[in-house]
Design goal:
The chain is mostly helical and 102 residues long. The protein has a single domain, classed as Lysozyme, CATH 1.10.530.10. It is built from 6 helices and no strands. It is globular, with a radius of gyration of 15 Å. The N and C termini lie far apart (43 Å).
Length: 102
């Protein structure tokens, strides 16, 4: 397979995407919502949001993300994460992330 075509292979794509989200999580102190925002909108934009909403509740940030596509992406992924966590781990569908932004 050519390199560009390999990116369309689901297992490789999921592994690379997971690695990138993991790297973003490290940059943003393990805060999943910020990591997802950075994955979708980029580090610079997300860093500005993190400064603007520092110390505020996560719910406020999730509703005020300045790019509609990114706001929807973060909300959908976190909702789905909670559902799968509940279904497969038997854990309550709550975020393990900090309730406020770092």
């Amino acid at each position: 397979m050519r390199e560009a075509e390999e990116l369309l292979e689901p297992r490789l794509n999921a592994r690379l995407g997971g690695a990138l989200v993991g790297a973003e999580a490290k940059k943003f102190s393990g805060h999943l919502a910020l990591a997802l925002a950075a994955y979708n909108a980029g580090d610079e934009t997300t860093s500005a949001w993190a400064k603007k909403y520092a110390g505020q509740d996560f719910d406020i940030f999730a509703e005020e993300i300045g790019i509609q596509e990114t706001r929807g992406y973060v909300q959908r992924v976190l909702k789905t994460f909670g559902i799968y966590r509940w279904l497969y781990a038997g854990a309550p569908p709550v975020l393990a992330a900090a309730p406020v932004l770092p």
